[in-house]
UPF0056 membrane protein
Amino acid sequence: METLFIDSVVLMAVLFNPFFMSACLRDIMSELSLREFFGVLLRAFAMSAAVFCLFAFGGDQLFSHVLQVRFAAFLVFGGILFLIISLRYMVFGAKMIETLRGPPEHLAGSLAMPFMIGPGTVSASVLIGNRLPLGLAFLAIVVAIVISCLFLMIAKVLFDYVKKRNEAIVQRYMEISGRVAALLIGSIAVDMIMRGIEMWLQESSIL
């Protein structure tokens, strides 16, 4: 059970991919003060935690009985969407999120969706809810969220400290690290598509 818990935390943290998020959010880091950024981040992560716990609690039932959609279809579509996001970042870099503007109080929802609440993290929440007791599933999700949130807070502090001296170098580093992280996102996207197809084939063979 301990191994499953650790694996679940790692899975969720990898799908959050704070390296990719910090690269995507570099413009927002530049525009917002430390206090404003922390406030936006905490609200976004709180919204995300509530959604993930909901899917961990009843994700399978929600898809099959309420939405009447196969989970395999969600994996395939989510994987395609994830793949498009990673490809767009590889081509356009951080410019792909220039629509995230406006007052800080409006940014939390934009950050939560789609950067935090995405097809990968939602499917991971369902998986964690299926393989762990409900209490441990919630705890694994919260631990992964806290780790990712702390990483982004530290990245903001370091960004503010370093950019005063070497802003051009910092911008270039974050652009490169973001594109490298996009490769991981693309790989996860392809794996989601493959798992969705495998699940669909298994369900078809049973029927």
Notes: The chain is about 90% helix and 0% strand. The radius of gyration is 18 Å. The first helix runs from residue 2 to 16. The mean pLDDT is 77.
